[in-house]
What we know:
The protein has 147 residues and is α+β, with helices and mostly antiparallel strands. It has 5 helices and 7 strands. The chain has helices spanning 2-10, 23-28, 47-58, 62-70, 102-116, and strands at 14-15, 33-43, 73-81, 84-92, 119-120, 131-132, 135-137. Strands 1, 2, 3, 4, 5, 6 and 7 form a 7-stranded antiparallel sheet that branches.
Amino acid sequence: MEALADSVREATPCRVGSSLHSKEVQLRKPNSIMRRYAQTILLKDDPELIRQYVDYHAHPWPEIAEGMRNSGVQRAYIYRVGLVMFMIVETDEDAKGPGLSEATQARLNEWDVLMQGFQEVMPGLPADAPRNGKWTLMEEIYTFEQN
């Protein structure tokens, strides 16, 4: 969670409703500045581990939502195809690291360690690719938005 907060501070802001954000976002937060992050990671090639990983995300610990909320995350989506995971996180422009109690932060760290047991870094990436733990930040190369 702290790595996400660090990457949140370094991203380039853009206005909601610009070509980088959908109309759905624009309707929810008009005239606000948001940041969007796309990240990818691989799951370990083990059907039982994948089932467990999906189940954890179907029933996340309450501290996960609390940590995201307190870090300025407005929306987060995770998608999967086979072993490939793709996550989109949208944050407030001024999102900062979480101001959480020690107990909640400890629980978030426990979640991160647990999830790392299911994950692998995407092979073939440059050594200097920006990372959020094992998740690799992706560069946006195309946008289409119908006005």
